[in-house]
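I hope you will forgive my troubling you with a question about protein structure. The matter concerns a single protein, recorded as an amino acid sequence and a row of backbone structure tokens. Please examine both parts with care and let me know of anything in them that strikes you as inconsistent. Here, with my thanks, is the record as I have it:
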Amino acid sequence: MKKLHTATLSIALLVLLSACGSKPGDRALSGAGIGAGVGAVGGALMGSPATGALVGGAVGAAAGGLTNQNDINLGEPLWR
């Protein structure tokens, strides 16, 4: 049950923090980075941080690239 709770919390954080920036490329890049970090933490709690980082990065990139700044806007990315 704890693993399910951790996975659910990780996915929720990923969606909330999925992207910043206004261009799809910026949003996908920041979403991938945030997703990989959240996925690695969730994966570490479940026994496989590398798998968690890969899955989290992929989901984060997709969430960032498929949303626009009207859906989720965390401001300009750090590299801009």
